[in-house]
Design goal:
This protein is α+β, with helices and mostly antiparallel strands and 68 residues long. The chain contains 2 helices and 2 strands, in the order ββαα. The protein is flat.
């Protein structure tokens, strides 16, 4: 479900249904655990470097092509 913000028409709010909330609550902890398991292969310094590089990629998105 979604709704528009009457005070700021640029904003849309997304609301999960009860079944959507259940899926979210069942899925997110497993995804977080999977992400941690993958990160465990790296040293803390490597994890920080990976985070730094991914942040750099994301912040440079204005240079990404519009299509693949």
């Amino acid at each position: 479900m979604w709704g528009s913000d009457q005070s700021d028409r640029r904003r849309l709010s997304l609301y999960l249904t009860r079944s959507g909330r259940k899926i979210f609550e069942d899925t997110v902890p497993r995804l977080v655990a999977r992400e941690q398991a993958m990160a465990d292969a790296l040293t803390p310094a490597e994890q920080r470097e990976l985070n730094r590089l991914l942040t750099k990629i994301i912040l440079g998105k204005s240079n990404w092509p519009a299509t693949v």
